[in-house]
Structure formats: structure tokens, C-alpha cells
Amino acid sequence: MPWINLTIRRGTFTKDVQHAVMEKLTDALMLWEKIPDNPEARKKMMGWVYEVDEDSNYSGGSPHHEDPYYCIEVRVLAGRFDRLTKQHLMLDFTKIIMLAEGKTHFSEDATRVWVTIVELQNEDWAIGGHTDWLRDYESALHTIGTDLALK
């Protein structure tokens, strides 16, 4: 249901690190969206990584050749997050990138991580050509809640 677009400079991460980053970003998104972590819910989480050339990273209108910048765009249904939840999600996403770079604490490096949250109205989001996919998503979440109640 929600999805993550991560744009990185080509060669920034190995494929293994890239996969781990996307898994951690998905974990954080599921946590803050309050989606229980199970296979059915995970099927609803999507993500794409876009790699750009080394000279396609601009700062101040000029190519930035030093440390890479990261752009993380999250798309969710409107109204899913309050302001505090958005702040926590953006902070967690930044920490995930910094840890992937091998940084153990925040510094100026964190300013290279840009996170945006795009909220879409139900009628502005189709899967398979249909905007009523949300019923299936809500049904999966309902089933998840039922499963948790039985434990």
C-alpha cells in the first residue's frame, strides 16, 4: 500500500547494503503506520531504488562530487500520519541511511538525507487500474488484528 522511492548516486551502496536499507526503511514505515509485520501486510509494501549518475547529484545548481545526497520519498494515504509521526519517520529514515554509510552518530552528514512524505487521497491512487484496492488492504489489516487477538 504505501511505497518508498529511494534515489541514490550510482555505486553508493553495494546491492546487499541497498537491499538491507530498503528492508529497514520498510520496517520503519510499517512501524510508524502501525501495520503489524507479517507476510500479508508486507505484500502491500512497495519500494523502488533509483540510481543516478555520479554527476547527477546537484547542490546549488552545480554537480556535487563529494559525499552523496539521498532523496527518500514516501507515499501514503492522506491522514495516516500526524505531525509527530511524520517527524519520527523522517528521523528514522535519516538514521537508517547514516548507519548504512557507517556513521554511528548524527552530524552535518545527516543534512544530505532529504525525506518527503506525499499524501494521496484514496481516489488518487489506483492499483491494477482500480481505486477500490483499499478494501483489500483494510481487510488484510482487519485479519491481522484478528490474528493478533487470538494469540
Task: Describe the 3D structure.
The protein is α/β, with parallel strands linked by helices and 151 residues long. It has one domain: Macrophage Migration Inhibitory Factor. It contains four helices and six strands, in the order E-H-H-E-E-E-E-H-E-H. The strands form two sheets. A four-stranded mixed beta sheet has the order 2-1-5-6, covered by helices on one side. It has a two-stranded antiparallel sheet with strand order 3-4. Helix 1 (15-32) packs antiparallel against helix 3 (83-100). The radius of gyration is 17 Å and the shape is globular. The protein starts with a strand and ends with a helix.
What is the element layout, followed by pairings?
Layout: E1 3-9, H1 15-32, H2 39-42, E2 46-52, E3 58-59, E4 62-63, E5 70-77, H3 83-100, E6 113-120, H4 133-150
Parallel strand pairs: 1-2, 5-6
Antiparallel strand pairs: 1-5, 3-4
Helix pairs in contact: 1-3
Explain briefly what this protein structure is.
This protein has 151 residues and is of the alpha/beta class. It has 4 helices and 6 strands, in the order E-H-H-E-E-E-E-H-E-H.
Ranges with pLDDT <50 over ≥5 residues?
144-151
| Strand adjacency order, main sheet | 2-1-5-6
Looking at how many chains there are and whether they match, the oligomeric state comes to single chain
Radius of gyration: 17 Å
Helicity range = 25-40%
CATH homologous superfamily caption: Macrophage Migration Inhibitory Factor
Q: How many DSSP helices? A: 4
* Mean pLDDT, all residues: 84
**Strand-and-helix sequence, N→C?**
EHHEEEEHEH
Distance between the termini: 26 Å
**CATH-defined architecture:** 2-Layer Sandwich
How many domains make up the coordinates?
Answer: 1
Strand residue content: 15-25%
Please write the CATH class name.
Answer: Alpha Beta
Q: Kindly report the CATH topology.
A: Macrophage Migration Inhibitory Factor
The largest β sheet comes out as: 4 strands, mixed
